[in-house]
Design a protein that fits this description.
The complex is a heterodimer of chains A (151) and B (69).
Chain A: H1 3-6, H2 9-36, H3 42-73, H4 84-112, H5 120-142
Helix pairs in contact in A: 2-3, 2-5, 4-5
Chain B: E1 3-7, H1 9-15, H2 20-27, H3 31-38, H4 46-56, H5 60-63, E2 64-68
Antiparallel strand pairs in B: 1-2
Helix pairs in contact in B: 2-3
The chains are: A mainly alpha (151), B alpha+beta (69).
Chain lengths: 151, 69
């Protein structure tokens, strides 16, 4: 049986974008763990490193099937098309950019004032964690289905 | 004064005996896109509006209308 027949391209795009948001949430957790390793003992940092590996593994495994479906359905063009989920994705991206800008201003001030005695990698990981978290949380909030009616 | 976009997709769907999923498949969008358009949560593009009009064989204005609030 041809898989192109059984996979609806538009639905494949919906699933893929939802998985991207989930992966962004996992990446946020991963970057948070990287930043957190600078604030804890060595043994705790080692544990966090192991957790980080598991988190990234979950993220990778969760997106591969939907990425494959997207490829076989030939729906890649629909990623830039007009659908509700693409609109939500764009809206969440704009919100994440705005919040990240505010976060970077705060990070710049805290680094200048030396509020935390930590290396630059802490701020970089923190900024990446904040950006990915802001995107995924905004995506899930905008994508709530409270007013959706299905038949 | 603001305007609200009203639509009669649900009515036309019922007339053509189409579920949201069937309609979505016919015009190449996801079911969620149709359901969010129906409840006014998502304003569709001109392309989607024209595809709906073509499918239901009516002018776009019969499906979508602006209501003054």
């Amino acid at each position: 049986m041809n898989s192109k027949i059984s996979t609806d391209p538009a639905e494949a795009v919906d699933v893929f974008i939802n998985r991207v948001a989930f992966v962004m949430l996992m990446m946020s957790l991963s970057f948070s763990l990287t930043a957190g390793q600078f604030l804890v003992s060595q043994s705790a940092a080692d544990t966090m490193n192991n957790v980080q590996t598991i988190v990234m593994l979950i993220a990778g495994l969760s997106i591969i099937p939907s990425f494959w479906k997207l490829k076989v359905s030939g729906a890649s063009d629909l990623l830039v098309g007009d659908s509700y989920i693409v609109a939500v994705f764009k809206r969440a991206s704009v919100k994440a950019f705005t919040l990240t800008y505010a976060f970077l201003i705060f990070a710049e001030i805290s680094a200048r004032e030396a509020w935390f005695e930590v290396p630059a990698e802490f701020y970089l990981s923190g900024a990446l964690a904040f950006t990915t978290a802001a995107f995924s949380i905004a995506f899930y909030i905008f994508n709530r289905s409270d007013s959706e009616i299905s038949d | 004064m603001t305007h609200k976009l009203e639509n009669r997709i649900r009515v036309f769907r019922a007339e053509h005996k189409l579920s949201q999923s069937e309609l979505a498949e016919k015009i190449g969008v996801s079911r969620k896109t149709i359901s969010t358009i129906e409840v006014g949560k998502f304003v569709p593009s001109t392309v989607i509006a024209l595809k709906l009009a073509e499918l239901f064989e009516v002018p776009v204005e019969d499906i979508f209308s602006l209501i003054k609030e």
